């Protein structure tokens, strides 16, 4: 007896998808819920499992083809009765599950009335999902891609509650979206090209920033700070420090001001708890500083900024920036940051929107200062204004808190009396 396998409903708003991989061939024996196709849509990558056990006798789709809901995929030869399973082949060990276990899981799911904490979904798994047929069927009915679900069962087995938590995390905006494939275009048809490889630093940076952009709901606030008096202070301190030839930039002052702001608003110096239901408040102040190197962006950490003065921070910044450019940083110098500052002031530009670096919840972008006219009520004064941008994780920081943070930071930088109280000397 032959039976057709049709493309099931792929979920709300998805009527078609492209075949990225055909996992079986004619003559292969398959068990129920064994993956037979991998599809890619605009929303996700998903496996299509066999609905029945049997032998593949015909295949009607191929890699790269676009298929629609209800379209015939394959024909499976099956036998009636218990002989069907023996003829179809052996199920994969990871698919085996006793009826008692399935009943327990079903009973447990029914008893649960309170929503379970949503969990941050991991990167897409490179191995086949470890789940029972009943869980695979449950995930398929909900439109969940098991390759993005973290199993909490024995040996990493994916349970029904894991699928439920994954779906809840998607609905609350915490789900990772599969990265769309980069289109393969022959650019040489329009002119001469050259292909070069990305180095490891740029590849890792790209992967981390892509993941952050997809998983963190980010918002950015903008402001301009009057640093006229602060620049005068910086110049005078530079002249004092001229004997040892070390350069004092604006960055150490910004680090001290940020530390004061982090102390004033503790949520900005935190991380979201793994279950998404709380905050981990940090009592230390380790500031990451983005350093431009020939190999790409490096973000070393300056520790205990609250306990160091401007001269100490200036010297440490110079040392760690040099180590970054010479590729001599050790892992400990790249870990443990609580807040990041990315400064493009030495290059140029007015504003930019930096991407939050998880597990941190905020990052400050610093652009180039510029003398501009500022109205004082009767006339215009020439003031040195510094553009600042604060990007933040909206799950932890709302717009009002971000505005207060920026206002406080503005006060710290615009009034040198505040700088004097911040242990700058």
**Number of helical elements:** 10
| Percent in helix | 25-40%
Please give the CATH architecture of the largest domain. Answer: 2-Layer Sandwich
* CATH fold descriptor of the largest domain: Chloramphenicol Acetyltransferase
- Looking at the chains present, what oligomeric state does this protein adopt? single chain
Strand content: 15-25%
Shape: elongated
The largest sheet is: 7 strands, mixed
Mean pLDDT: 81
Q: Could you characterize what this model shows?
A:
This protein is of the alpha+beta class. It has three domains: 91 residues, RNA polymerase II/Efflux pump adaptor protein, barrel-sandwich hybrid domain (OB fold (Dihydrolipoamide Acetyltransferase, E2P)), CATH 2.40.50; 86 residues, E3-binding domain (Dihydrolipoamide Transferase, Irregular); 220 residues, Chloramphenicol acetyltransferase-like domain (Chloramphenicol Acetyltransferase), CATH 3.30.559. The protein is built from ten helices and 19 strands. A hairpin with a 6-residue loop joins β10 and β11. The longest helix is centred in the middle third of the chain and has 16 residues. The chain is elongated. About 9% of the residues have low confidence.
Features:
Dihydrolipoamide Transferase, OB fold (Dihydrolipoamide Acetyltransferase, E2P), elongated, 425 residues
How are the SSEs placed, and which strands pair?
Elements: E1 2-6, E2 16-22, E3 29-30, E4 35-40, E5 45-49, E6 54-59, E7 66-68, E8 72-77, H1 83-88, H2 99-111, H3 133-142, H4 160-171, H5 200-215, E9 218-226, H6 228-240, H7 251-264, E10 270-272, E11 279-281, E12 287-289, E13 291-293, E14 296-298, E15 301-302, H8 310-325, E16 339-343, E17 362-366, E18 370-375, E19 380-393, H9 399-414, H10 416-420
Parallel strand pairs: 12-16, 16-17
Antiparallel strand pairs: 1-8, 2-4, 2-7, 3-6, 4-5, 6-8, 9-19, 10-11, 12-15, 13-14, 17-19, 18-19
């Amino acid at each position: 007896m032959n039976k057709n396998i049709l493309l099931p409903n792929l979920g709300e708003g998805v009527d078609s998808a492209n075949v990225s991989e055909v996992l079986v061939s004619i003559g292969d024996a398959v068990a129920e819920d064994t993956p037979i196709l991998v599809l890619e849509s605009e929303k996700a990558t998903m496996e299509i499992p066999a609905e029945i056990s049997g032998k593949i006798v015909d295949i009607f789709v191929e890699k790269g083809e676009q298929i629609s809901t209800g379209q015939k995929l394959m024909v499976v030869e099956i036998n009636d009765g218990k002989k069907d399973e023996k003829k179809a082949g052996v199920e994969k060990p990871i698919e085996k599950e006793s009826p008692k276990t399935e009943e327990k899981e079903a009973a447990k799911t029914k008893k649960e009335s309170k929503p379970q904490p949503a969990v941050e979904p991991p990167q897409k798994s490179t191995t086949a999902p470890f789940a029972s047929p009943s869980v695979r069927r449950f995930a398929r009915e909900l439109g969940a891609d098991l390759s993005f679900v973290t199993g909490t069962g024995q040996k990493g087995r994916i349970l029904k509650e894991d699928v439920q938590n994954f779906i809840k995390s998607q609905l609350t905006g915490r789900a990772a979206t599969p990265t769309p494939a980069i289109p393969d275009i022959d650019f040489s048809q329009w002119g001469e090209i050259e292909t070069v490889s990305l180095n490891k630093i740029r590849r890792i940076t790209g992967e981390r920033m892509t993941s952050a952009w997809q998983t963190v709901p980010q918002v950015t606030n903008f402001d301009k700070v009057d640093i006229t008096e602060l620049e005068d202070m910086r110049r005078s301190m530079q002249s004092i420090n001229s004997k040892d030839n070390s350069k004092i930039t604006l960055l150490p002052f910004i680090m001290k001001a940020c530390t004061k702001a982090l102390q004033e608003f503790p949520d900005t110096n935190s991380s979201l708890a793994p279950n998404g239901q709380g905050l981990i408040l940090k009592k230390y102040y380790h500031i990451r500083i983005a350093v431009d190197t020939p190999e790409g962006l490096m973000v070393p950490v300056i520790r205990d900024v609250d306990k160091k003065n401007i001269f100490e921070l200036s010297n440490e910044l110079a040392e760690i920036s040099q180590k970054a450019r010479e590729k001599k940083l050790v892992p400990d110098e790249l870990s443990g940051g609580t807040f990041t500052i990315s400064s493009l002031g030495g290059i140029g530009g007015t504003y930019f929107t930096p991407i939050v670096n998880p597990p941190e919840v905020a990052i400050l972008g610093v652009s180039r200062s510029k003398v501009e006219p500022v109205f004082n009520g009767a006339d215009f004064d020439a003031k040195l204004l510094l553009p600042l941008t604060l990007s933040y994780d909206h799950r932890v920081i709302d717009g009002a808190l971000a505005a207060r943070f920026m206002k406080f930071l503005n006060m710290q930088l615009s009034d040198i009396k505040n700088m004097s109280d911040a242990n700058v000397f």
